[in-house]
Amino acid sequence: MPSLTDPLLVITDLDGSLLDHHTYSWQPAAPWLAKLKANDIPIVICSSKTTAEIVTLQTQLGLVGAPFIAENGAALQLDARWPNAQVSAGGFTGKDYTALRAVMTRLREAQGYKFFGFGDVTANEVAEWTGLSVKEAQLAKTRQASEAFIWRDTDDRLAAFAAELAAEDLAITEGGRFYHVMSRGSGKGAAVRWLLEQYRQHDGRRWQTLGLGDGPNDQSMLDAVNYAVIIRGYSKTPVVLSSAHPSIYRTQAYGPEGWVEGLNHFITEA
Ligand SMILES: [Mg+2]
What we know:
Structural class: alpha/beta
Number of strands: 11
Bound molecules: magnesium ion
Number of helices: 10
Distance between the termini: 12 Å
Strand order of the largest sheet: 4-3-2-1-9-10-11
Low-confidence stretches: none
């Protein structure tokens, strides 16, 4: 079990994990956030949200400058104090947003697929889809390397669309509300492994990792960490990790209460 004085990265999902699924509150986690910060333990947000959305949340959470993983792993930023902290999204995963949108619209024109991406609609429409404010929806639209979309066609044609995307080195992942197109081989787990490698190269310490998440899109991230906290969630699809995973804890509580439960379980405070 890690202690507060070990080199430890805490990697966390937002919605349904650090943030309450319904109210977006993180107040129950505030004391633990303060404790981690006081011990210089990086808190790495790892979310489907965009860089613009995460930077706004980092300000509210007091995590300005901490590394983060955005757009389900398609975009990433290192510790702001490091040289070259800004990682270009295209540089990390292959295709940037403009290139990936161009492929999607070309396939749609050729095959008549019925889907609506964030790039097809206004911030007002994204606000209606998500329940975000229009201002927040604008941040959700500032995408770097993945596209969120609603599918309005058959399952068979979704499979055909996925196959055509795969030929372009792109892949579809299913999130809570939307499907996402991103570069093949990217994802939360790949981003976490890459980030950890940067930490090891940066200072040569033996960094340990503790991850917290509540959904199927967190599986690859939780499989990539030493200590996995599966927060009780509302997803119908269960979160299943590798049978070889060294250390898994499933919480009783939901959201930020579950987040606290997981840290209490794994981190020794003495
Ligand atoms: Mg979640």
